[in-house]
UniProtKB/TrEMBL annotation:
It catalyses: [E2 ubiquitin-conjugating enzyme]-S-ubiquitinyl-L-cysteine + [acceptor protein]-L-lysine = [E2 ubiquitin-conjugating enzyme]-L-cysteine + [acceptor protein]-N(6)-ubiquitinyl-L-lysine. This is RBR-type E3 ubiquitin transferase. GO terms for biological process: protein ubiquitination. Keywords: Metal-binding, Repeat, Transferase, Ubl conjugation pathway, Zinc, Zinc-finger. GO terms for molecular function: ubiquitin protein ligase activity; zinc ion binding. Its EC number is 2.3.2.31. Signal peptide: none annotated. InterPro entries: E3_UB_ligase_RBR, IBR_dom, TRIAD_supradom, Znf_RING, Znf_RING/FYVE/PHD. The lineage of its organism: Eukaryota, Fungi, Dikarya, Ascomycota, Pezizomycotina. Pfam families: IBR. Residues 1-189, 3-57 form the RING-type domain. The keyword Zinc-finger applies. The keyword Lipoprotein does not apply. It comes from the Eukaryota.
Amino acid sequence: LDCVVCDETKTFPEFPSSTVTKACNHPPQTCLECISTSISTDLKSKLWSEIKCPECDRLLAYDDVERYADHKTFETYSSLSLRAALSESPNFVWCVHGCGDGQIHEGDPDQPIVLCRSCDRRSCFQHTAKWHEDMTCDEYDAFLKDPENYLSTWERIRRQKEEKATAEMVEKTTKPCPNCKVPIEKNNG
């Protein structure tokens, strides 16, 4: 047989024994080597889910790609297919820190922190972002709406908390001087 892609004459065992995909309506006229090359090329230039028969516009199913692709191409295809399936789960979250891993978030909206099982870094399930340290999700939403004003308000609140904590510490560890009323360290005994 002559391959319609490479135009080389090849033996019957060098061609698929049946159609390239169950959806094809034509006998196979592309050799196995060209089908494999076509899958590899499509995977590099198209979405993983758009790999087609080299002779027609029929999409290849997972098992078709497994049957005809070389090992490396199939591993890439399989990984992309798995990632797409996982991403469809509403509770699945990819690590936003770039480690390439992801997981199902088992917490509820009141527990938005996701701790990556691979890199041990925290992210926010609700915002799909790195964890917003020292801010609740509501505070982070307010920050996102008006970052300039929020930061000044947040900084003022933070300072007030620090000043209150300092005043409480001074109260616990000092007493006023009987003469000038300036705080002095309390005696420990």
